[in-house]
Write a structure and sequence with these properties.
single chain, alpha/beta, Rossmann fold, 2 domains, six-stranded mixed β-sheet, four-stranded antiparallel β-sheet, 10 strands, about 35% helix, globular, transport, nucleotide-binding
Amino acid sequence: MTTDMPILRVAGISKAFSGRWAVSNVNFDIQRGSVTALIGPNGAGKTTLFDLITGHSRADEGKILFNQQSIVGLPPHRIARLGLARSFQFPRVFSGMTVLENLMVACPEQPGEHLASLFITPRSVSDREAIGRAAAEEMLEKLRLEKKADHYAGTLSAGQKKLLNLAQVLMTEPSMVLLDEPMSGMNEGLRSTIFETIISLQGRSKTTFLFIEHDIEAVMTYAHHVLVMVEACVIASGTPEAITSDPRVIDAYMGDLQFGSL
């Protein structure tokens, strides 16, 4: 596979609900190892677009290629196994399990998935469980949740649950991650933790990130590229600097606002 091919290609994707377009003829490429922001007003279709890419909803028209493979029509778990993972605006965690347990069940090739192996190769199962625990503990330390390892996930704050959801996603070792408003509901310290982790992974393992965000300062600071979505359509694409000076974007979205929460 050539490295200059986009890791994700969205071509002519459209989706309507009750006769109204939520996503209309959207086209863009995401380059491998990049950090891309998807911005736009509420109701523009950003989360619906994420749903289409990750298999939580099916497009009416168009193509979606991940690593040059069509993923339209695939269920979410199959898309995730291909290396395309996603976190949610409202995090999904196992409230009755500890924070550490939440991460261990997200490990690839979790031993408990194969009941027969518990009897046939118990030593191998034990070894993989130890490796999974070590990886989970390392991930918690990266996201500054190590002190919460033995706490039930249901006791975490909203911001901490978002960090845990991100940790769950990263434990699957994806090649691309979609983040839906990762900063919402977080204090300043937790916000910086999320983006420090993103930049670290992008630099070290070349993980690709696409995130929805309303904070233009975060977009300007962390994104390499920006997509602007308004009324179901992507109206502009470019560097953060180019986007903030694009007349189409200013007229349709930013207005007189330049920085802060949009």
